[in-house]
Design goal:
The chain has 140 residues and is mainly α. The chain has one domain. The chain is built from six helices and no strands. Helix 1 crosses helix 5 and helix 5 packs antiparallel against helix 6.
Length: 140
């Protein structure tokens, strides 16, 4: 139960940060990609701020702990190779994010806006995940 409460608290902090930074506004996100028009560098500052916290945090945790506080082991990716599947998935993710103006992490706090575009994006994202699972199951 403590694990779920902490996940809720950290998710709420993340969502609050996304909302305060304005990243729930798809126009603000899309302006980051409009280099020769209404370019808005604020998304870069949000990413730099996240990395400034995450990189030293991960380094400290992995150096000082054998396991996380509320789990038996650290969740590490099973695959570490950079292959066509990773590159293709990353490209599709980026295209979807840039076209819609929503990052999956930013779309969850944007639900509070009550705009149809948020729900359409989330439904499309979930449908895409389900279709991709089916495709990968057939390929494997």
């Amino acid at each position: 139960m403590m694990r779920e409460l902490l996940a809720l608290a950290f998710g709420a902090i993340f969502g609050l940060g996304i909302a305060i930074s304005g990243m729930i506004n798809p126009a603000k996100v899309m302006n980051f990609f409009d280099l020769f028009g209404t370019w808005d560098p604020s998304l870069a500052f949000v990413m730099i701020g996240a990395l400034a916290v995450a990189i030293p945090g991960y380094a400290l945790i992995f150096r000082t702990r054998q396991a996380p506080v509320l789990n038996a082991e650290f969740a590490q990716p099973a695959r570490t190779t950079i292959d066509r599947r990773l590159i293709g998935g990353s490209a599709l993710f980026g295209l979807g994010w840039g076209a819609a103006g929503f990052c999956p992490g930013g779309s969850i706090p944007a639900i509070g806006l009550g705009e149809a575009s948020v729900y359409i994006f989330l439904l499309a994202m979930i449908a895409g995940m389900m279709v991709m699972r089916q495709i990968l199951a057939r390929l494997d």
